[in-house]
């Protein structure tokens, strides 16, 4: 009942947000980066993450490192990802690995053993274009997944909004599959361990999907740098729960909006995380 | 014109197959694995790959390491993946990184810089559920991608075979998008750098898609261990080109089918790769 644990943390901290850890080297104070090698850059992004986690762990319930920003540095970056997961967990944070992994069953099983084994993340984002046999290996007791339903990007409608002959849109059909796949893992808060990714940039669809999928917990990207605000994510909640809202660049790069030097990234991130929490809590 | 280079290698070696490098530790001679740590296991799978590459590089044009089988060992596994790509390239092999990566544009750009930068693979598999803005960052001069169209697994129809209101199936629509996205990168052999993954396990659809997408090169999984045979992949070709057929377990674990001890994996793999080549070449 992994989602239940996340909801407990959200209720305890009175904060339904997740801090995205997508540490492009450009975002860091350049003084943190000792040199140009992948090892030096990877070391810097881990220390950047560690400082962010130290500044945020008592106010946010969860972090979401995005694999791409680690794989961009090859295996040294991947090591920084693994260290980030470990450090976040040591501070009591719930960790969502954002990898959007997907494959046929035997291969999905290898991914599952990676992200829910040697890397002990609590949840993983998954792309279900392959159907249920590519999803089933990720249904692991005590772990959760978030399946892409309606993504936050501008072009998401190109496939996801197409209408099927039965009148459903592709993303609605995907949502219904996600709901069915989660039926066996609904916890005491009423939400299953098979969640959905639904973008804050499509608030009307977010509201519709909340009604349509009452037991599906939502991971909502698109707040902040991508344009979504607190009013856009209200529809993801019912009775104050139902979703966790991600902000990555908005928190990591808060120093820019606050007119501070990059060295102040951690304090600025804390200020922004508190502002975001209060803004969202005042709406839901 | 990355696909053109792959086709040149295929024509030169008279072999349209790619050897999948999905090295589960269970497949290895246990004597190769010095101990239980991820580093020891990762070292063993790299040496296993190296021996396979040494046994195959003069007869197969390409290899396809599948990321999941490296990520299962965390960052040590990822390092073995990177070393495998480097070693395969040093032997003149074309390398398809099978990661099925996907994300919004800014994040897809980070993946692209990873797999087509610090990791210098020639091609990457991509899942296009997010639409074109998630695909565009992978369109890099001199590199190719393979987008999931109709996958080889049993449940692939759950989403991919659904019929849209315009009468097209989802996988046909995806195929048409792939074809359009490749229009600007068609090389002298007539195929673009935006390829499609189409499973050998659905031979009729493979044949239909070949007709429908005349300029789209196919990466065809599902031969061998997944059940497809040479007759099933014939439809992927036109005038002797048009596809590269993958075999992973069939080649890596050929020693089992040949009744040999695991220590003979490399010789057995070579025998199977030659048999597979001859079988496919006799059909197309």
List the helices and strands of chain A in order. Answer: HEHEHHEHEEHHEHEHEHHH
Indicate the low-confidence ranges of chain A by residue numbers: none
Q: In which range does the helix fraction of chain A lie?
A: 40-55%
Oligomer state equals homodimer
Mean pLDDT of chain A: 97
From the spread of the alpha carbons, the general shape of chain A counts as globular
The total count of helices of chain A amounts to: 12
Largest interface: A-B, 62 and 62 residues
Report the portion of residues of chain A in β strands. 5-15%
Which class best fits the helix and strand makeup of chain A?
Answer: alpha/beta
The rounded Rg of chain A comes to 18 Å
Q: How many strands, what sense, and barrel or not for the largest sheet of chain A?
A: 8 strands, parallel, barrel
Total DSSP E strands of chain A? 8
Terminus-to-terminus distance of chain A: 24 Å
What does this structure look like?
The structure is a homodimer of 284-residue chains. The first copy, chain A, is an alpha/beta fold. Chain A has twelve helices and eight strands. Chain A has helices at residues 2-13, 38-56, 68-71, 74-90, 105-115, 157-160, 170-181, 203-212, 230-233, 249-252, 254-257, 265-283, and strands at residues 17-21, 62-65, 94-101, 123-126, 144-150, 194-198, 218-220, 243-247. The first copy, chain A, has an eight-stranded parallel β-barrel, surrounded by seven helices. Chain A starts with a helix and ends with a helix. The mean pLDDT of chain A is 97. The interface between A and B is large, with 62 and 62 residues.
């Amino acid at each position: 009942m992994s989602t239940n644990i996340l909801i407990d943390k959200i209720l305890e901290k009175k904060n339904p947000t997740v801090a995205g850890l997508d540490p492009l080297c450009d975002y860091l104070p350049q003084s943190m980066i000792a040199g140009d090698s992948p090892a030096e850059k990877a070391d810097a992004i881990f220390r950047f993450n560690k400082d962010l986690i130290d500044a945020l762990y008592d106010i946010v319930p969860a972090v979401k490192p995005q694999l791409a920003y680690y794989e961009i540095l090859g295996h040294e970056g991947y090591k920084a990802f693994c260290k980030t997961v470990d450090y976040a967990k040591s501070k009591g944070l719930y960790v969502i690995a954002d990898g959007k992994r997907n494959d046929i069953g035997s291969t999905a099983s290898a991914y599952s053993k990676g992200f829910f084994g040697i890397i002990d993340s609590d949840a993983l984002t998954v792309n279900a274009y392959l159907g249920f046999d590519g999803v089933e290996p990720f249904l692991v007791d005590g772990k959760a997944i978030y399946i892409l339903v309606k993504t936050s990007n501008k072009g998401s409608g190109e496939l996801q909004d197409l209408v099927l002959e039965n009148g459903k849109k592709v993303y609605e059909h995907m949502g219904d599959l996600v709901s069915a796949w989660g039926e066996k893992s609904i916890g005491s808060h009423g939400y299953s361990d098979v969640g959905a990714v639904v973008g804050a940039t499509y608030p009307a669809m977010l509201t519709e999907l909340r009604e349509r999928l009452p037991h599906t917990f939502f991971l909502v990207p698109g707040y902040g740098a991508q344009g979504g605000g607190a009013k856009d994510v209200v529809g993801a909640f019912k009775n104050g729960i139902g979703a966790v809202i991600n902000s990555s660049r908005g928190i990591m790069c808060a120093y820019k909006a606050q007119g501070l030097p990059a060295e102040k990234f951690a304090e600025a991130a804390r200020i922004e995380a508190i502002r975001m929490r209060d803004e969202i809590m005042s709406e839901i």
